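Section 5: illustrative case.
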């Protein structure tokens, strides 16, 4: 019985190693992130419940968007390998899929998330705009101590038409090594 399970596990690992596509790996990671990150967010005992709920939904939605994009762009990119010479097509397909997944992660998914998540989150968590109105005519006096004005006197003369020299940039004689310019 134990050798049967061991043989099946060995066969599964061999098949995964030989037939693994970059798209499958990234989709598996996105699935785990889509499950674990919201779960761990909700388990945080130091955060407000509403904040946890908002963050968990947002993280879950991000992965819900990411998984089909990874799959679609990875597979679509893999189809481009048919334009390669026949001896390069097998490895070329995996490389093209990898590049498609990278483009999805760097450009497509952030763009889609930026365009779609905010409106979706506004449906789940509508903002109360009436509470945020501030009366601009409200007279408020500060109890903070007031500082006196100080006049700055300087004998620095600026000549706009003067060509800069090394002395222009140094106000005192420089000698030896100095760290930090002081």
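Designed sequence:
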């Amino acid at each position: 019985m134990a050798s049967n399970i061991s043989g099946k596990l060995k066969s599964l690992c061999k098949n995964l190693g030989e037939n693994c596509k970059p798209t499958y790996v990234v989709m598996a990671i996105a699935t785990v992130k889509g499950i674990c990150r919201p779960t761990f967010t909700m388990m945080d005992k130091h955060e407000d419940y509403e904040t946890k709920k908002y963050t968990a939904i947002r993280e879950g939605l991000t992965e819900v968007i990411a998984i089909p994009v990874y799959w679609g762009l990875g597979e679509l990119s893999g189809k481009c390998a048919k334009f390669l010479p026949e001896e390069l097509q097998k490895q070329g397909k995996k490389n093209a899929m990898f590049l498609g997944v990278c483009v999805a992660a760097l450009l497509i998914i952030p763009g889609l998330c930026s365009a779609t998540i905010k409106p979706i989150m506004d449906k789940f968590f509508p903002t109360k705009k009436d509470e945020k109105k501030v009366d601009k005519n409200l007279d408020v006096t500060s109890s903070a101590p007031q500082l006196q004005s100080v006049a700055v006197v300087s004998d620095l003369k600026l000549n706009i038409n003067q060509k800069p020299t090394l002395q222009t940039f140094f106000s005192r004689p420089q000698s030896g090594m100095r760290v930090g310019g002081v």
